[in-house]
Design goal:
Blueprint: H1 15-18, E1 20-28, E2 34-41, H2 46-51, H3 61-69
Antiparallel strand pairs: 1-2
């Protein structure tokens, strides 16, 4: 995702940004009658980037992406 933060001085620069995966299905929803898409980050620290910690502020990458994707244009 383009909005993913990258810490150039960190131990794994760019790992979080490179760890995004997407998947989709035409059999989504409760009755399996609608399309669904899934977005996930496979890095072990993805939840800390999204929600933050007591030392690091939250970045809310998925929240911002969902808000942008949910806009009617």
């Amino acid at each position: 995702m383009a909005t993913s933060p990258v810490d150039e001085r960190g131990p794994h620069p760019g790992h979080y940004k490179a760890s995004w995966e997407t998947d989709s299905t035409s059999r989504g929803g409760r009755r399996r009658d609608r399309a669904a898409a899934y977005v996930r980050n496979t890095s072990y620290y993805a939840r800390w980037v999204e929600y933050g910690t007591e030392r690091v502020p939250a970045h809310h990458v998925l929240l911002w992406a969902a808000q942008i994707g949910g806009r009617n244009q």
